[in-house]
Batch of 2 targets.
Target 1
Amino acid sequence: MPISEIEVTRGIVEGFTKDFLDSLQLDVAVAGAGPAGMTCAYFLAKEGHKVAIFERNLHVGGGMWGGGMLFPRIMIQEEAAEIVRGFNVRLEPFGDGYYVSDSVETVSKCTAAAVDAGVKIWIGVSVEDVLIREEDRVAGVVLNWRAVELANLHVDPLAMEAKVVVDATGHEAGIVHTVMRKIPGARLFTESGQIVGEKPMWAEVGEAEIVDNTRQVYPGLLVSGMAANAIYGSPRMGAIFGGMFLSGRKTAELATELVRAGV
Ligand code: 48F
């Protein structure tokens, strides 16, 4: 039975519109579909939360695809292995307490797990700003097409409400930077109240500190993955990824607490 172009168009627009409208009021909005954002969203969806990820690229996976210097392998430590195994990723033991996995397999399977758990992933969509409500609480995401940004077109964004917003934008920590730029005198829940900034590579320290750095950094706004280290002044760690998965899982736990507390 042939299908007309108009029916193809209707199917796509109706499907998109239904899901988009359904996402207008989220429990948790995650900016960035790297390992941290994806893991966070997966655990939240498994708990029954309404969660969406907004990824400005056309592809998900963030810095994971390219492994180390384009060798498509990533290193994962024992502490994070159970999370990655939960995505059905095959892990090759390496030395004492470490594993190597195929980065393409890891991205694909963790994406599949998140989608199966109920996460909605919007690609080509940038979080360009946040919604702010009483007492400067972050209360949602302001969205635009990445293509609009790249073309430098003056097009107003749309918005979705969320009880909690997660900055999982990696090294940029773009959502926290936006909050600091747009709210005069804003103070983060860091010691100085300011963004400390990412330190040069030191894998051992970066991995040791990332879970502790995974916190609510501003009312209604959590930092996850490399964004957490970038805000709290910890080192980067290169192609070892266990901390990203562990940070993602902790972010889900913190977000769950905030959603339950009705923040
Ligand atoms: O960079 P990314 O993979 O962050 P992560 O989950 O993991 C970091 C590791 O990949 C690696 C590392 C390992 O030791 O250091 O760097 O913390 O994923 C971040 C994603 O966020 C997207 C970006 O395209 C990437 O896919 N992103 C960044 N800014 C925005 C955004 C934005 N404003 N709106 C939507 N997506």
Note: The radius of gyration is 18 Å.
Target 2
Amino acid sequence: MNQDWQGALVRRLLLLLAGCLLIGLITGEYAWALALGLGGYLAWTIRQIRRLQQWLKRDQPDDPPPDSHGIWGEIFDSLYQLQRRDIHLRGQLQSVIDRVQGSTAALKDAVIMLDSDANLEWWNPAAERLLGLKKPQDSGHAITNLVRHPSFKEYFESGRHDDPLELPSPVSDRLWLQITITRYGNSEYLMVVRDITRLHQLEQMRKDFVANVSHELRTPLTVITGYLETMLEHSEEQSPQWTRALQQMNQQADRMQHLLNDLLLLAKLEATDPPTSAKPVNVSALLESIRSDALALSADQHSISFDVDASLQLRGRESELRSAFSNLLFNAVKYSPPGGQIYLRWWRDEYGAHLAVQDSGIGIESKHLPRLTERFYRVDSSRASSTGGTGLGLAIVKHVLLRHQGRLDIQSTLGKGSVFTCSFPRSRTE
Ligand code: ADP
């Protein structure tokens, strides 16, 4: 084809040249004849360009290109084929887009596409039901102006979207939503919103159940412990077997009391709002008092050394911090053999404030570390009864830290000891 038009072009130019030469031969004016011939060729070329431009301007893809031959015929045909191919591809793309939009429209979950400035670009009908978005007036508006829950704004602007956010729907307080945000393409956002009302209700029922059972069990347990203590006070009147049985019953009742207290504390941590505008807590004094309790628990069998920045205070709720820190220190005592060294450090750096509790105890195998903060998770359940643990200590630590925007890191080597480090952001320090 390429060869064809090149040959035709050369033939046509040779013919033109021959014609000009012939006219020159007849008239004797070679230069004029040549100028006339080339001028004619130029005029014809300009006419083809004009026809091409008019055809392109019409912008009617089904209109065939103007008839022409030679190189111009080739150009018209190639352009026409390109245009047809483009129309075909566009059709295919549109049908894919239609199918994607059709399937996302049928989704029960809301799918929302935002541009890199978090303005709404596209959303499916479920987003209108769950978040109350309105087409077309909300298009182009910032999502944080439309979903005005403070936790959403904070979550969105934090840029940390690894974990989903749960919050009540702006449409109705009875509707609970779980929001997941993913960045894609040129830093655009894809937001997926699920209705988790049923899950939330079940979770609420679980929390209420645990809190109610723990609360209801407290009174009978107090009565039982009271009687056990009275009976133990008069143990000289009983046989040694009975005394031993009573002592064991008292021990187990004590354990149960601790368990109920821990369950109630966890329920309270889950049910109340985190301490946002809390007062500064004198952590140094708090640690000193926890250390005395830990020494009492250890019966002075362990050495607890201290390296504390006394000027460093933490904004938070003192009672919660006391529970978390004492759980860590008491664990260090419980899981270190007599004579063990425990090292407590409270310091600040450019990231914030940190508390490290290091022990030279039995240590933990690395496979257990990710699950340690789960409720009732124990490395060795037979060990638990001997230490009197409830299995809730680290779950409480995790909850308290979460409520203070803190983080727990655990490093441990079996047989050598462990380091539990709590880290708090700079915004919490004083
Ligand atoms: P518990 O009441 O059983 O101590 P925790 O939630 O406080 O429950 O701890 C969970 C488990 O983690 C414990 O059963 C224990 O096996 C392990 N553990 C916690 N702290 C330490 C530590 N300092 N050294 C070794 N093991 C520990």
Note: Residues 327, 331-332, 335, 359, 361-364, 372, 377-380, 384, 389-395, 418 surround adenosine-5'-diphosphate (CB under 6 Å).
